[in-house]
Amino acid sequence: MSFLFQAGGVDLPSPVSITINNELIWSSDTGRTQSGKMAGSVVAEKKNISVKWGILTEAQLTKIKKNLPHGFFKIKLMDLTLTVYRGTIGSDLLGDPGDGIVRYKSASVDLIER
Which domain of life is it from (predicted)? Predict the structure, then answer.
């Protein structure tokens, strides 16, 4: 069964792992007072999504890179639709096992909600 993951309306290869963290965004005046007490307030909660793929062909990795562009873009992940930006797309080259198709052992990226 494939896992629904789209970027810009394009289906991407199914990831092997997705970690979703709900990060708190604190006000700009957040910090410690002279007495050591924490001061500030939460102004928003945003998702930080870590996506990992297993073995990919070069064509699949190219599709991922093409559809996770620079700047802000929309993704659909199961029932979530978010506007995100991405971190570095990392990949681990496996090579050509002799069939003329270059493969990657893994790939990963962090997607941060706008």
Answer: Bacteria
